[in-house]
Protein: Acyl CoA:acetate/3-ketoacid CoA transferase
Amino acid sequence: MQTISSDQAARLVNTRDTLAIGGSGGGHTVPESLIEALERRYLDEGAPTGLRTVHPVGIGDKATKGVHRLRHPGLLERVMCGTVVDAPGIAESAARGEIELFTLPQGSLSQHLRELAAGRPGLITEVGLHTFVDPRAEGGSQGRRSDDPPIELVAMAGRDYIRYKPFPIDVAFLRGSTSDEAGNISLEDEAYFGEGLSMAQAVKRCGGTVVVQVARVVPRGTIDPKTVKIPYFLVDYVVVDRAQPTTYLTKDSPAYAGRVRLGRDALPGLPPGPRSVIARRAARELTDGAVCNLGSGISTGVAVAAAEDGLLERVVLTNEQGLIGGMPMGGLDAGAAVNYDAMVDQPYQFDLYDGGGLDLAFLSFAEVSARGDVNISRFGGRIVGVGGFVNISQGASTVVFSGTFTAGGLETSWDGHRLSIGQEGRVRRFLDTVEQISFSGTYALDRRQRVVFVTERAVFELDGGTLVLTEIAPGIDIERDVLAHMDFMPKIDQPARMDARLFEAAYRH
Structure:
């Protein structure tokens, strides 16, 4: 192992290379100094060009950091990732047709890196069938058309599967907390393990170069060997950034690192309003002992609602990044958690999800169709991607989708007895058809999943390929406040009234 500067590390990347980048979302274990140095080199020299990047999780702060730094014309040829919601420049480049962009299920990409490390003939999976990821549909493509897509449809024993094709990786940019002088890497300060080991193994199998950004270098033999996540013989170079933060938003968090536990008064609360109603109603689906996933966005509020109701210790909340137990965080720190019981490598978390280990999944929706199809990946001219959504939604026994009934300017109030819509949102969400299928209602019926849609004014369930209105908020008129803002007619059969206590708790602040 050799210690070098970030600028020296950037020079290890050559034109047309494939670069694997570790890390998750809002800076969790992200080698930001290395990404920044690569951008700096390109702006100074115009090189390298035509790179292909792979990072299972979206990386960025939704503004200037992360892979957004690589948006410059000519720098990238292809991006394979779960989502670009954190990197707006990449989404915009893809929308202009400047790059190939494949937004593929986060778990499948994570697992595929493990397959590459083992030299196996790619990942074979059913995850993504009957969605826009299916090669019979868009094949996950969101940008310029490619003559060499990374996935294909294969048939085995009379069943259809998606095969992720093997590909070489030339360089990996990873991050740890500490390196010893030999190059053993530990992650004791990190909020996320990810698939750093699989990435390093895959790159070395391809004869490539592994660079790891760390906060410090210590003498050999001083790291507890049980905490070493990437052993020394897989590491070529180390770059020291003593100021690397836990996340982009949080400079230093012992709680995210799992070194301390927080009291209930230190945990976040739910802001008042419709999103609080939705999170509290969704939390009513929790059952004792249930193993659950909480997606990003509005669904992270389910953890707060569970804590307020004393349910947090009676269920197992997880997130796809590999955290088990405790309370997953939201906002820019989504992907981190506090008071968790275990942190596992991301591919293994998705093994649990894909294998049917989830009793409940709480996910967001952007659009819902009359057949129960859900879109969260591309809508309103915006490319988002799917993250772990497809793995989670196809693997769980029950899926609870949450979102406001309309979007863009919705205003609501509660007078102690009834919910009032002060201003309706500009954008309808319940449509005849969705722009892109991220979840197939028809396929869910084939798999015998229970599917629930929770909004601030109504609750629906999918039954026989039709949405059924099962609950309505106090004070809401079905014709005026529900049907008038849907493109289709749901089945209505004496819906129950949503519990008024949900609204009293949500609006009492």
In short: The mean pLDDT is 95.
